[in-house]
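Researcher: Next sequence.
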Amino acid sequence: MREIFGTVLFGAAFGASAADTMTLRECASIAEDVARLRCFDRLAAAAQTAAQPTPQPVSGDAAAADPSATLRPALAGEARTVTPLSARWELDPESKNGTWSFRPHKPNYFLFARYTDSVNQRPYVGYFKSANGRDEGLDPAEVKFQLSFKTKAAENLFGRGADLWFGYTQQNSWQLYNAGISAPFRETNYEPEIFVTVPADYPLLGLRGRFVNLGFSHQSNGRSEPLSRSWNRLYAQAGFEYGDKFQLILKPWYRIRESADSDDNPGINRYVGDYEAEASYRFGSQTLSLLGRSTWDARRGFLQLDWTFPLSSWLQRDESSKSAGQLKGYVQFTTGYGESMIDYNHRQDTIGFGVLLTDWM
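Model: Next structure:
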């Protein structure tokens, strides 16, 4: 009787179920003292482990509703939410992917058709006249695509989690539908860069500050005179987020001055701008992004509006397929100066339709 009474008390103290109580009875029925104690020890250790609460990660919806859940550091044993901004820049230990492997940098896309309301014929007039003497020119419709990647050269610099990156972006404007001039590439822009990312975590105006970048960028179209365009910049970049639905990146820069003899595009700052801001908002499986560049006096600049949406539901019926959701439809609208380097001082409005491989978030 004493053994049964002790077994019931032991089971109640550790919240044992009926199945556990049967196990306790089995332990109590062991005649050998050492074996019986070992049996009780194992049950006690199992009950203590089961009594500890299971860490619950902060869901994306909960983080968006209560951004303070992502502002505070994770407690010991608590799962940390990796936000799109953290995954893109590898800001947390959970999002680190090591060095010397390729990651997307800026969006990678292919526009099957991009139309402009104002074709910039001026830089090419002399070429067309000298080439064949006929009245040839550029078409308002063309193909546009961008390839962009980065790779990490060093990780955890200065013991602060800072990373050293090399990045490369190439944007191409292709007169694919212009058979009269043999469908050439009208413009190709190359932008290698090197930068250091320093993770951060601080509140600012309801947002969460997540990183600061310091870098150097060279951008050019690789052409000879009179079509050559290029510039070099030093820049700073700061990233902010609100849960996992919204992110904002601010990027001012300083153009490294060139001599008047070697400057291919004097006054480019007065057209393209002195800083850039990029805001992205995700709703469901779609994303709206707005990228703007402007001068400090806000007289000129550039604006790009992107809308991305999944194509998987249109292209396939099997939503459980592993490839579902990877391919997205993409609509791009731009207005202002500097859609490409050759157009740095030419104002136009464009709209393009295509597919997106990697998004801002």
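Model: The two ends are 66 Å apart (CA to CA). The chain has two domains: 2-51, 84-358.
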